[in-house]
Amino acid sequence: MRKKPVQQRSQQMVDALIEAAGQVIAERGLEHFTTVQVAERANVSVGSLYQYFANKDALLAALVDRLNREMGEMVSRIAPSLLQADPQTLVRGLLHAAFDFLGGREGLYMELLRNWYRLDIQRSLHRFEQQMLEITRAYALTHVADLRLDHGPAKGFVIINSVVFTLLRYLSLPNRALFDRDRLVEELTTMVAGYLSAGRPRNPRSKAATVTRAKPGTGRSKRNPVRI
Amino acid sequence: MRKKPVQQRSQQMVDALIEAAGQVIAERGLEHFTTVQVAERANVSVGSLYQYFANKDALLAALVDRLNREMGEMVSRIAPSLLQADPQTLVRGLLHAAFDFLGGREGLYMELLRNWYRLDIQRSLHRFEQQMLEITRAYALTHVADLRLDHGPAKGFVIINSVVFTLLRYLSLPNRALFDRDRLVEELTTMVAGYLSAGRPRNPRSKAATVTRAKPGTGRSKRNPVRI
DNA sequence: CTCTATTGCGAACGTTTATTCGCATTCAAT
DNA sequence: ATTGAATGCGAATAAACGTTCGCAATAGAG
Description:
- The structure is a homodimer.
- The first copy, chain A, is mostly helical.
- Chain A folds into two domains: 1-54, Arc Repressor Mutant, subunit A; 64-203, Tetracycline Repressor, domain 2 (Orthogonal Bundle), CATH 1.10.357.
- In chain A, 66% of the residues lie in helices and 0% in strands.
- The first copy, chain A, contains ten helices and no strands.
- Chain A has helices at 8-28, 35-41, 46-52, 56-82, 87-103, 108-114, 121-142, 153-172, 181-197, 204-208.
- In chain A, helix 5 (87-103) crosses helix 9 (181-197).
- In chain A, 33% of the residues are buried.
- Chain A binds a DNA duplex through helix 1, helix 2 and helix 3.
């Protein structure tokens, strides 16, 4: 931030600018997000904008920061109520919450998430993963038997990204007639809950027909020992 | 295409332009993909570019078309060799193929996939899903017992998007030290193979503690009957 | 009230880029 | 060889946008 707002009016203006930035992005998309638009929307001049934000990116960063905080609070709010449930219910509850969250704010979260690789949403995603890991850990204290807890970082990564991006793509779908939201949540719940409670193949028969390596399309060399 | 190339030299030029477009995008990213750059790279003038492509988007569309075809051929090429394997091996083989494919072309596929929502990659993704469903169907003819085949469109959607975007995000990771590629493939294999061969909860105990709905963060109303 | 630091303004500037247009060059049919 | 169509060129045009700068309005201390 180029200058610190000391008087009250300027502080309000900074808030209004961040808010307006969110509105513009939600309505017009990140591509058409311009400083002039934001200034107009906030009933502020462009010059004033640049008095408090070094440039466009700084404004965007401030917005992302604010939303990041919101997300953290959301997770902390709903997590405790789910710790008593069984794994399936926990996963389903988190999924519904994620659905509601991503769809909120007039699609602002979605638009930002679509552009995850340009923004430092990388950090947000990572933080989100961490939060989920904490929930998992807290959950483990009450349901030790149900889950295998030797999760390396890979499992969390797989789950978070599978869920978030699948939801994102579903919400971006022009035609949602093929299957509805609840169906999707159920499918994801099945997949994730199964994955969580199963570190190894479940079907007794497939245990016998062990790891017969397939020839990959493009030949590759040294591969790690298969730790399942 | 604004004008059809009838002579041989112009046909070559069109090809060169599409090829150059891919190179520019792979090297500079879609953001810095400009018509002048493409023309220079193809040793062609900008004016000539606009003689065969109505605008920048048309050029991009032509590129996507070409890559879409490539992808289809890739899948058709590797699919037959996997039909004999067990589900785990099938999934693992497809995953490795997807990994190799996405990483190819100097990151061109990745850069395009990152921008999936701006391009009509929607169509490509959908086509990819269809292909996967065909493979699954073909696979079912030989391994009837191992899989539940009442897959609605939702299951395919979940799998495709989970896998593709998780791979995409992994490949976009600045620091890949946390876990390596093979580890990721194994995790995804576990998850997907488990999901495919299990339509309902596997743990006998969790069958008893049935669908105790969690209160979602934001209250929502009529929900569909839970078809698992 | 007076004075100064803070705040606010928005036209103007410079850069970047897509797209066009008038003219030159090449092809291929006669 | 001639000629008309096809092809190729790249400076010029125009629109969009981020950012600056000089000046006006305002707040709050003394």
